[in-house]
Amino acid sequence: MQNSQLEIYPIETDYRPETDHTYMSDQMIAYFQNKLISWKESLIKSEQYSVDSLADISTRENDPLDSCTNKEINYPQVACIKHKKMLLSQIDAALANIKNGTYGFCEHTGNPIGVARLESYPIARLCVWAQGQLEKVVNMNSRAFPRAQNFY
């Protein structure tokens, strides 16, 4: 996992991106970059704690049955660690988009994603319309063969 080479930029303490009249102004970019870096640092700290606790538990038992039991008990933690790694990857992608000037714009349409959407989910890559279209396609594909699920 790579550390970001980006630094936190000073912004006005009372800055609110929703009141900025220029979409993806320097101030807005700095705001979202700081938000992403803070989120990344928080995830890295919590991930290290989770990995350390798993390593501690896994070294306790030599019996294969006990080891399997520990793996089953730890499954939620392992799933959480995998999710955090996926989030870290998406945060790195968002920080790369900041560097190349494409952050805040939909990868599908090129339209602005929107400040409200980025405020709630700063790693968003699609605008609301494109995300809705993607979800429709995924939903249609998952229901394409409903009887086949009961066949096997």
Count the beta strands. Answer: 0
Catalogue the unreliable spans.
Answer: none
Order of secondary-structure elements: HHHHH
| Tally of structural domains | 2
CATH class of the largest domain: Mainly Alpha
Q: What is CATH's topology name of the largest domain?
A: Four Helix Bundle (Hemerythrin (Met), subunit A)
Count of helical stretches = 5
Helicity level:
55-70%
Radius of gyration: 21 Å
Taking the sheet with the most strands, its summary is: none
Overview in brief:
The chain is an all-alpha fold and 152 residues long. It has five helices and no strands.
Characterise this structure.
This protein folds into two domains: 23-103, Four Helix Bundle (Hemerythrin (Met), subunit A) (Up-down Bundle); 105-152, no CATH class. The chain has five helices and no strands. The chain has helices at residues 26-58, 64-100, 115-120, 128-142, 146-151. The longest helix has 37 residues, at 64-100. The chain is flat and about 60 Å long. The chain starts with 25 loop residues before the first helix and ends with a helix. The mean pLDDT is 82.
Topology:
Elements: H1 26-58, H2 64-100, H3 115-120, H4 128-142, H5 146-151
Q: Features of this protein?
A:
0% strand; Four Helix Bundle (Hemerythrin (Met), subunit A); mainly alpha; 152 residues; 5 helices; single chain; 2 domains; 64% helix
